[in-house]
Amino acid sequence: MTKKLISTLRHNRVVPLVQSDSPDTALKISEALLEGGLDVLEVVLRTDAALDCLEAIAKEFPKAHVGAGTVLSADQSKAVIRRGATFIVSPGLDPASVDVAKEAAIPILPGISTATELQSAWNMGLRTVKLFPASVVGGPKMLKALSSVFRDVEFMPTGGVNPANLKEHLAIPAVLACGGSWLTPKDAIEAGDFGAITKLAKDAIAIANS
Ligand code: 3PG
Q1: Count of Cβ atoms closer than 10 Å to residue 112 Cβ
Q2: Which residues is 41 bridged to in the sheet?
Q3: How remote is the CA of residue 160 from the centroid of ligand 1, in Å?
Q4: Which residue of 89, 113, 158 sits with most ligand 1 atoms within 8 Å of its CB, as the best mutation to test the pocket?
Q5: Which residue lies with its CA nearest to atom 5 of ligand 1?
Q6: I need a surface site. Which of 12, 17, 108, 190 has the fewest CB within 10 A?
Q7: CATH homologous superfamily of domain 2-118+178-204?
């Protein structure tokens, strides 16, 4: 993991997911998040337009840290790197994707949900992982338990993190940042209410700084 991304995550403390069917809308979502003070975004591969959205955002906002999420395979890892992703997030641990990311010198945060998976990631040389789905596998309790054993690992818990439990997660020293979709709610996007997204970003930063 590059020092630059680590310091960006440590500074932002939250990583919003960007999911859209159209690059135009994805750009508006990203603009709203940047306006709210967040400059790290994770574009998730969950729509047919996701790669186009990723490329559009990476081109339009070159100063932002635009990563790709929900990356499931080596082929997808190669595709997101080609389209401009500066980091990769996946729900689980896929050694082939880790190899692609390493080869390209792009940071990868694979999802882990057990000590065994974390140990495998650790043995691949990774020191930053996503805990997923955080709320299902124990949330803050699980993070404390894992970090007491894997003392040089930092975590990005994702899955069920929201404004009500964000502070509790961020208070754990081994937690670098939290990821989540709560910053980009579907209903606000459908209503074209991008101001609501800016407000959620500002609120999250306020919680992180409180
Ligand atoms: C992810 O891809 O990391 C999760 O879908 C995010 O989970 P959330 O929707 O509960 O924030």
Answers
A1: 26
A2: 66
A3: 7
A4: 158
A5: 159
A6: 190
A7: Aldolase class I (3.20.20.70)
Indicate which residue's Cα is closest to atom 7 of ligand 1: 159
How many residues does this entry show for the chain?
210
Q: Enumerate residues 6+ apart whose C-beta is below 8 A from 121.
A: 93, 98, 110, 112, 129
Tell me the pLDDT of the chain averaged across its residues. Answer: 97
* Model pLDDT, residue 5: 85
Q: Ligand 1: distance of its center to the CA of 120 in Å? A: 23
Instruction: Say whether pLDDT at 82 is over 70.
Output: yes
Checking if the pLDDT of 1 tops 70, the result is: no
Above 70 in pLDDT, residue 16? yes
Q: Which atom of ligand 1 is nearest to the CA of 89?
A: 3
